[in-house]
Amino acid sequence: MLDHYREELTGFYEALRRQQYLYFSGQKDRFELEPIFDRYSDLFREDTIQELKRLLDQTPQHFQTQREGIRRLIACAEEHFLQRSVVELTEQIAEREGRAVIGVDGREVPFHRVTELLANEPDAARRRHINEQRLRIIRQNLELHEERIRRMHQGSRLLGYDNYWSMVENWPGSALRRTTDEFGDFLHRTEDLYFRHLERELADSLFLAVDEADRADVERFLQLHEYADLFPADGVISAYRETLREMHIDLDKQSNIDIDDVQRPRKSPRAFCAPIKVPEEIKLSISPRGGVVDYETMLHEGGHAQHYAWTSPALPVEFKLAGDAAVTEGYAFLFQYLILDPLWLDELLRFPGSQSLVTSLWLRKLFYLRRYVAKLTCERQLHTTEDSSSSGLQYARALTEATGFRHTSDEFLHDLDDRVYTARYLRGWLFEVQLREFLRTRFGKRWWKSKKAAHLLIDLWNTGERYPVDELATLADLGTLSVEPLIHEFTNALS
After folding, report:
1. Which of 393, 339, 395 is nearest to 372 (CA)?
2. CA 180/CA 294 separation, integer angstroms
3. Residue ranges of the alpha helices (H) in 247-340?
4. Of 138-142, 149-153, 268-272, where does mean pLDDT reach its minimum?
5. Neighbouring C-beta atoms of residue 65, cutoff 10 Å
């Protein structure tokens, strides 16, 4: 049964990821998920899940790898059992957002380009006007989001769980309770540091006081326009290519990685990685516009691409694509935060004396951490109480307090990722800090120029998603993952 199941699951992932890539890269007008779920429906039926559970019970305890693989397959089947129940809603939301436009200066701007508009708009009043139109579109889809999450919650109970949160907590590597506990006082411990720097940055770059800052200002804050000339659009891909070359990895010889930088009207402006067949076919979609966020996103998605491209083809599908996503997020963050390294900025981007930029980037990293810690608290309430209204109000309050930018409840469900992916990001951040410090200690401050460091990373990438992130950290001699190194870094960088 397992061999056939794995073969079919591999086909499902390939079809699903290809559909996602084609739609979000602007090559398809329709987001057609339902035919894929219909074709592979046998994989995610309730009786199939029960059969996998019986198989787990029959597998001897000392067959640890096989048991772990079956647990991954059970989690995958449960996740997609729920996804199948909401597939038409997922399609409707994506297609509505794909067709939606807002009016700006007499022209129509696609909804997916609105964040780009906000990032480039210097006038605060105009940003608020643009953002209100963005929120109007989000509100139009609110009922679809509410019905979608209601069905997901109902589905988790059908599978025998108390609620959606407890279902995800049961999945291998989720570590929801541990993550919630570890980040429990993170906001308090970083609050003074964050707001001291935020107050100065908002005044200097956006001419706003903290109590005036709004969700409409976030993209402009993140974009760091005063440094725009250092991050031209035509340098985005070359910065990634040159970084790999320094690591003795030749991107041009990686035939399994296809960088799609073709401009299309419906293409998502944000870079993304689509591991269609691992490791044989990895798509990296990008629409270069320039700016620091473009470079960060390219490096991040490029980190995903390297991980999947070097994954061993001998691994079964559950250890390639159905593992702990905190692992691949950690590798993505490792590449992304090269932009915080003054040596990398000097030697790769030819920007010496970058301390003021680096300090600003550290503040923005802390913004993201505080935002995701606050989000996790709200998601826990939503998935345990199933009350989207009160959870939305908590979202508005918690994100406003955590980030200093006034949020509303309107975009809570729009901002929600399935399977509590927020926790995977947070554990990925923990992994990245300790992996980077390990590389610096072993190979020096310019570890990204070391062939031996690259070989070590390739050895890790080769394991795919075989190990949950905490286990991988132990096996790689990084130590037990902890929030302390993260807080220590912020304290050093921003004090």
Report:
1. 395
2. 30
3. 292-309, 325-336
4. 268-272
5. 10
Q: Which two tokens stand for residue 190?
A: 């970083």
Residue 353 in this model has a pLDDT that exceeds 90: no
CA of 246: how far to CAs of 241, 282, 311, 432, in Å? 9, 22, 21, 20
DSSP 205-270: II---GGG-BGGGHHHHHH-GGGGGGS-GGGHHHHHHHHHHHTT--GGG-TTEEEE----TTS-SS
CB atoms within 10 A of CB 11: 15
CA 235 to chain centre: 23
pLDDT at residue 1 above 90?
Answer: no
| Bridge pairing between strands 101-104 and 281-285 | unpaired
CA torsion through residues 149, 154, 159, 160, sign: positive
Secondary structure tally for the chain: helices H, strands E:
22, 5
Rg (CA), the chain: 22
Q: Report yes or no: 393 and 205 within 8 Å, Cβ to Cβ.
A: no
Residue 78: per-residue pLDDT: 99
Q: How far apart are CA 72 and CA 399, in angstroms?
A: 33
Task: Give percent above pLDDT 90 in the chain.
Answer: 98
Put the strands of the sheet holding 281-285 in their side by side order.
Answer: 257-260, 281-285, 272-277
Q: Is the pLDDT of residue 255 over 90?
A: yes
> 337 pLDDT exceeds 90?
yes
Q: At what angle do helices 292-309 and 236-246 cross, to 10 degrees?
A: 50
CA distances from 297 to 68, 72, 354, 405, 446 (A): 32, 29, 20, 22, 21
- In this prediction, residue 482 carries a pLDDT of 98
> Which one-letter DSSP state was computed for residue 283?
E
Say if CB 19 and CB 30 are below 8 A apart.
no
CATH classification for the domain delimited by 180-494, as one of 3.40.50.2000, 3.40.30.10, 1.10.1370.30, 3.40.50.360: 1.10.1370.30
Place of tokens 């994100």: 399
**Nearest of 43, 18, 11, 14 to residue 32 by alpha carbon:** 18
Yes or no: say if 371 and 396 are a contact pair by the CB < 8 Å rule: no
Cα angle 251, 256, 262; round to 5: 75
Map out the domains of the chain as residue ranges: 2-173, 180-494
pTM: 0.98
